[in-house]
Sequence to fold (229 residues):
Amino acid sequence: EVVLTQSPATLSLSPGEGATLSCRASQSVSSYLAWYQQKPGQAPRLLIYDASKRATGVPARFSGSGSGTDFTLTISSLEPEDFAVYYCQQRSDWPPLTFGGGTKVEIK
Amino acid sequence: QVQLVESGGGVVQPGRSLSLSCAASGFTFSRYAMHWVRQAPGKGLEWLAVIWYDGNYKYYADSAKGRFIISRDNSKNTLHLQMNSLRAEDTAVYYCARDVGSSWIDRFDVWGQGALVTVSS
Fold:
């Protein structure tokens, strides 16, 4: 099973600041990695797929990078609506499909 | 609009069974693979199962294998999850999610709002 480790667990930032979220895989997942955003009481929302492709309707301030075992989700300038929990997920080696433990981006 | 709506959640005693449904609308349901994903209270996301567009192939996480059954009725645009021998640790919000792929795994591009299942005596 591919284990995805996200860091940090919590990121405390102010609106307008940039955010860098990390996801590390226990083995190579090539570029088969997605990022999801989840707000309290809501379902997850697809942001990034195949490591760096933005999903439909996702603002350009969200970008993804990486391949192999190390991946990054970058939010260039945080908007109030970006404070949420972010999960990475791999589809390279399955079953099972696996998610990381999540990074919470909170208002400082 | 494209929508998934789960139903069937509730409180169930340990050892009992429960069936969840996910009604799809706004897209051609029979063209897409479908998943179930759950989230225990205050925890992260856990993938449970996927079923191919035609229902011919199903794959499960170890936590679901042997107790949960994923199925679909393309004539009714509905996805199902039959959960048997429920345990307290199955308490979670259960989401259905659409895959972009039909007979391959790609990404979850549409999610339902979730159904809460509480396993408690």
Remarks:
- The radius of gyration of chain A is 13 Å.
- The mean pLDDT of chain A is 98.
- Chain A touches chain B at residues 34, 36, 38, 42-46, 49-50, 55, 87, 89, 91, 94-102 (CB under 8 Å).
- Chain A has no helices and eleven strands.
